Structure prediction request, 1464 residues.
Amino acid sequence: MSGNWFGHNFRFATWGESHGPAIGAIVDGVPPGIPLAEADIQSWLDKRRPGTSKYVTQRQEPDVVRIMSGVFEGKTTGTPIALIIDNVDQRSKDYGDIKDAFRPGHADYTYWKKYGIRDYRGGGRASARETAMRVAAGAVARKILERDFGPKFQVRGAMTKIGPLRINPEKWDWASLDGNPFWCPDATVIGLWSKFLDSVRREGSSAGAVVEIHASGVPAGLGAPIYSKLDADLASAIMGINAVKAVEIGDGFNITAIPGEDAHDEMRMKTVEGQNERAVEFLSNHAGGILGGLSTGQDIVVRFAVKPTSSILAPRRTVNIQGEDTTVATKGRHDPCVGIRAVPVGEAMVACVLADHWLRHKAQCG
Amino acid sequence: MSGNWFGHNFRFATWGESHGPAIGAIVDGVPPGIPLAEADIQSWLDKRRPGTSKYVTQRQEPDVVRIMSGVFEGKTTGTPIALIIDNVDQRSKDYGDIKDAFRPGHADYTYWKKYGIRDYRGGGRASARETAMRVAAGAVARKILERDFGPKFQVRGAMTKIGPLRINPEKWDWASLDGNPFWCPDATVIGLWSKFLDSVRREGSSAGAVVEIHASGVPAGLGAPIYSKLDADLASAIMGINAVKAVEIGDGFNITAIPGEDAHDEMRMKTVEGQNERAVEFLSNHAGGILGGLSTGQDIVVRFAVKPTSSILAPRRTVNIQGEDTTVATKGRHDPCVGIRAVPVGEAMVACVLADHWLRHKAQCG
Amino acid sequence: MSGNWFGHNFRFATWGESHGPAIGAIVDGVPPGIPLAEADIQSWLDKRRPGTSKYVTQRQEPDVVRIMSGVFEGKTTGTPIALIIDNVDQRSKDYGDIKDAFRPGHADYTYWKKYGIRDYRGGGRASARETAMRVAAGAVARKILERDFGPKFQVRGAMTKIGPLRINPEKWDWASLDGNPFWCPDATVIGLWSKFLDSVRREGSSAGAVVEIHASGVPAGLGAPIYSKLDADLASAIMGINAVKAVEIGDGFNITAIPGEDAHDEMRMKTVEGQNERAVEFLSNHAGGILGGLSTGQDIVVRFAVKPTSSILAPRRTVNIQGEDTTVATKGRHDPCVGIRAVPVGEAMVACVLADHWLRHKAQCG
Amino acid sequence: MSGNWFGHNFRFATWGESHGPAIGAIVDGVPPGIPLAEADIQSWLDKRRPGTSKYVTQRQEPDVVRIMSGVFEGKTTGTPIALIIDNVDQRSKDYGDIKDAFRPGHADYTYWKKYGIRDYRGGGRASARETAMRVAAGAVARKILERDFGPKFQVRGAMTKIGPLRINPEKWDWASLDGNPFWCPDATVIGLWSKFLDSVRREGSSAGAVVEIHASGVPAGLGAPIYSKLDADLASAIMGINAVKAVEIGDGFNITAIPGEDAHDEMRMKTVEGQNERAVEFLSNHAGGILGGLSTGQDIVVRFAVKPTSSILAPRRTVNIQGEDTTVATKGRHDPCVGIRAVPVGEAMVACVLADHWLRHKAQCG
Prediction:
C-alpha cells in the first residue's frame, strides 16, 4: 500500500501539500472518554510553527488546528478524529525559478522518478509542512499516555549539536530549553550557537543538527517482537521525519567500543521511596530503555541526525526535467537549520509509537 | 497486532524458539514463476551459520532449510512458501545456571515483564537463532529482485569496525571479504582484528561492531511516502535485528557537520556507456541513495551498530525472578562478537525491504 | 486497530459524524497520472443524495465534494487524495425526543455499550451519511479501473425487491433504471412499487430491499487466496454497508438446491468476434464470476439484503440510558426504504474492492 | 499483499498444498498464560477429519497436529504458535486424468489465469484441506474466549439444509447433533437426508448445503466501525471458506419482507436471575446479535450456503490448458456434500473473528 498512514492500533493518516488549501490527518483507534480540546493540540503545534524566530522559516503560518470529528462534549468518542490546518501563506510564486530544476538533496527528483509528476509549486507532499500533522497526532497520543501512565510520563526533546558544535552533556539542564530558540539544554553554548547560525543564515547556507528525545515514565514491556520491536518502530518513525539520516537508541554507535562487561546495564533491587515494596533499579542506561525490542521501564533515549536544509541560496549544479545541465538556487523562505523544528516533531513521533504499542500491549497482555 | 510478521506486499512471518524442535517462516506474496530451490536459500544460510570459525558460537547447527510449500517443479507458484529448519543442537542444560537470574543487556528481563513467562531454557524467541529465518526470507527476496532488476542488482555487507578498531575506508576492497571470518573489506586490519577478538574471547568478554550494507542496481523511485519511506523501513528492518542500537543512511551522523552547500549530491547529465542516451549522474553519495524516502538510483548505503554480546563469562550484578540481588555469568557457547553473524542478516533485511517496496511500487506505479 | 479504513493497496479511510461540521475521506495508493476532477466524483454522489425524491430522506444536503489534495493540474499525483463534504442541514433538534432512548434496530445501543458515549444528536458516526464517502472513494476507484480495464468495464446496481415485492428477472432491462426513483430494472413493477412505498411512508413504517450489483469487463485472476478472496472481500465490503444483513455471490443460497452436475458453469472455446483468436466462454454464470476466490472474467454478481430503516414513526418498546423501560418513535426525516440509496453505495464498494485487488494483483503478478 | 493471513490483533497465516508434505499455520498475538495442549486442537480437527463417515471424502488423513512453538510448560508464551499437520495420504495419481482439463466450478481455472501455474496434482492451495488449519486456529481462538468470556461462551454449528431438503426450525435441538453425521439439529429429517445423500453419492453427483453458526455468551460492543464491523468481518471469514456462496446475519434476506415496525428487536429491562441487578433483554433476535456492526450481547447467528462439490463423477464440458474443448470427470475421493465438513470450519472462523475483535476491543476500550 501507499505509505501515508502510521501505526496499528493507534493509527493516523495524513494528507495535504504545502501549496494546497490545507493539510489534515485522521487519528483512529483513540480510546473513548479522553478529554481533548483544540488547545491541547495547538500548544504543541505552536512549538514547531514557522516564523517564531529568525532561525526558522519566515513563512507566516498561524497553523490553527480544527477538530472536525471524533470529539463530543470535550471528550473523544472512539470514532476517528479528523484534524485540519488551513494553509494561509502559500505564496507559490517564490518557487518559479526552480520550476524545472531539481534541488540537490531534495525529494523533487525522486518524486518525479517515482510518480512522473512535477509539482513545481514547492515541496508539495514532501514538504516539512506535513510534519505539523505529526505534531498534532502526537498531541493526541500524549493525552492517551498521560491518562494511562500518569504524571511521571513525559516526552521531551532537545538539540545537542548544530553543525559542528556540540553541547556539553554534563551541562544538560532541561530548564535551559525555555530560554532559547534552539531547544538547547546547555545554556553555556547558546551564544555560540546563535552566532554560528546567524552566519549560516547570512551566507545563504544551512546547518545540520543532532536531536535527542527522552521518554520517561514508560512502563516495562512495551514493544512487539520480532518485527515491531519498540526500537525498530521508533527507528522507522524517526527516520521517516524529513531530512533525518541516522537514529540511535541509548549509546548507539558508541556502544560498539565498550567491552561487553561494561556495555550492559546491571540491576539491583531497591526500596521504592514511600512504598513498602522493592523494585528493580538499573545501574546505568546504555540500552536507552529498550532490551530485546521491549521497554525496560528506564528512560527511552532516541537520538537522530538531521541533515542541513537542502533548499539554500548558494547556486549548485543540477539537471532539469528536460535532461539538461543547469544550476539551481532557492530563493524561498527556508529554515537555515531544519533540525530546530525537528525537535517537537521527534517528540511527537516518539509519543505516537508509544501510544500504538501501549494499545497493542493492552490487546495481547492487558 | 503482535509483531512476528514483516512487510506488506512481500510479507513474511517467522516462528520458533532456540530450544524448540524447529524454527520456520512463511513467505507470502512472492510472484509466481520464479525459480527457487533449497540450495538458493542454503547458500545464504551457510554465511550466518554457527560454528564456522572460532569467532562465532560453537553451537553446532547445520541449519538445513526445507521448502514445505509454494514451489512446484522448481518454480514459485504464488502461494505461501513455508520454510523450516530443525533445531539439532538445543543442549538446553547449558542454561541451568541462569534459570532464574536476568542477564544484563539481555531480553530475558523484558520478556518476563511483558509476558509474565520465564522460559529459562535460553534465549527462546529472543535468541539470535531467529535471524536464520530472516536470511532465508532474504534469499527469496533476492531471487525476485535479481529477476526484475537484472545482473547489476547486488546486496553486499561488510564489517567496518570491531570494538574500537575501524577499517580504513580508503582500503575498501570487496574482494577482501572472502579471505577472512570478519567480512572485513580492508585486508590490512584483519591481523589486528584477529588478535583483538582472540583476546576478547579468552577473557570471556565480548565486542561490538559496525556493519555496512550496500545495495547496488536499485532503480530510482522505490519507497512509499510518508510513513513507509524507504529509509524508514530500512531503519526499522535493521534496528529490529538482535543487538542493533543505531542505524545510519549514507553519511548519517556525519552529515550534520557538513555545510549545506557541500552536503547535498549535485547532479549532471552523462552519456551512458554503449548507449545512445544520457542519464542523470550524481557527483557524490552523501544521501546514501535515498532522498525524500525514495531511492535515487545510486547505491543504497546502510550502516548499523551492533552492541557486544550480552551473554558473557564475566560475572555481573543482577536480580532474579524472586526479586533478589545476585550475580550472573553465562557459560553457554556464545558469539564473542555477534556483529559478525549480523552481516548476512543485515544484507537479508535490506533485500526484504527492497522486495517489499518493489512490489508496492508495481502496485501503484507499475 | 479501529476499523475506519478500507483496503490494502487501494486504501481509504473516512471520518465524520452526521451532525458535525463535515465528513471526509483520505484515498491513498491511487496511481499517479489519472485524470480526476470534482465533477467525476460529484456525479456519483448525486445518485445517493438525500432529497432527490419523496422516497428518500428529505434532509437537504447538497453534498458538494471538494478535493483538498493529491490532484495537480487535473491529474492524480500519487499522494493521498483528501475529500471533504460539508454538512449543511444538521438540524439536530429533530433528535431531542430520542436523546436518552435507544431505537430498536439502531446502532445507538451498541455504540453506547462499546464506547460508553451517548451522542444524542443523531446517528453520529453510525449514520448512513458516512456512505457518501464510500461513494466518493468508489468514484476514484472507477477512474483507475476505467483506465486499466477499458471501456467494457462497468459497475451497475439495481434494486430487485422492495418489501415483499420482487421484480421479474426475465424483464430485466438496465435501461429501465433511468425512469424511476428505485433503480428498478423491471419497468412493469414500478407502479406497484410506488404505491407500496407511498403506503409505507404514510404509515410511518419502513421497508427492506434487495439490491444486485453487476461488474462487467473485469479480467480473470483478481483476488488473493486464502483470506482475501475476492468474494470474501466483497462480502465484507457489502455487509459493512449500513443496514445490510445478507450477501450472495451468483446463485447464492439458491445454488444449494441444484445438483452438482448442473450447478457448475461449463466451458467452451469460442471465437472472439473480430479477432483472430479463441477465448474461453462459460455456458452459464451460477458462480457469479468468482471461483476459488478469484475472478473468472465473467460478470461479477453480488446481491444483498437491506433491512427496513430502523428510525420510524411507529412507537416501539425500548429502554433508555437510565435503565428504564420506555417507548420511542423517531420524528426526524428518514428514508422509508434505505435500500434505495444503498444502490450507489453498493456499486461504490464493489468498485473499491476491485480497485484494491487490481493493484494487489499488479504487485504480485504484474 | 497476498492474502494468506487472517486478522489484526489475533492473526494467523496458513501454508501448504493438499499434495505437499504438510500444511501449517502460525497463530500470532495470542495472550500469554493460556493453557494449550495439542489435544485442545485435535478434538476440533477430528470433527472435520476426512474418512469419518461414508458421506465425506474417503481420503485417509489422521490430521495429527503438532505444536512447534509458542507454548512452554503447557501455556502460551505470547510468541507465535506454529502448527503443523503432515499430509499422509497424498495419492496424487488419482488426478492424472484431469491434469490438463479444468473442472467446472473449481478454482483450477482461475489459479491458472492468475498465476500462470498448473499444479495438476489436485486442489493444491485451493483444496479444502487448507481448512484444517482454520479449525486449528479456531481452537486456539476458543481457548482465549473461554478464558475471558467464561463458561457461557459457546460457538456451535449445524446443517439446516442439504440439497433441497430443509430442517424444521421448530424441531431444532442441539442434542440431535451427536447422533448423526450431518450435524443436523432436527432428528426427524436425518433418515431422509441419509437416503438423499446415499443417492447423490451413488449417482456420482453432489449436493449443496446451508450451515448455521450460533455464538453465545459474547459481550456487547465487539466490532470496529466502519470497515471492520463485526458482521463485515464475519461475512468475509465465512465467504472465504471453500465453496461458500452466501452469508446471512440473523434474519438475512428474510428481513426484507418484514415491515419496519416488526423487523427490529425491541428491548425491556429484566431482572437477572440470582442477581440484584437488572439488564437489557431483547424481545426477539432478527438482528442476529449485531447492530451497527457491533455485538448486542444476544446470540450471534450466521448462516451460509455451500455449493455442491465441483469434483464429481459425471462428465461435463470444459476446456483444457491447450485451449481445446474437452470433457472432464473426477475420479478422486471427494465429499458428496462438502457442506458437512464446512460446519466445524464455519464454527472456527466465527471463533477467530470474535477473538480478533475481542483483542481489538481491549486495545481501544479495555
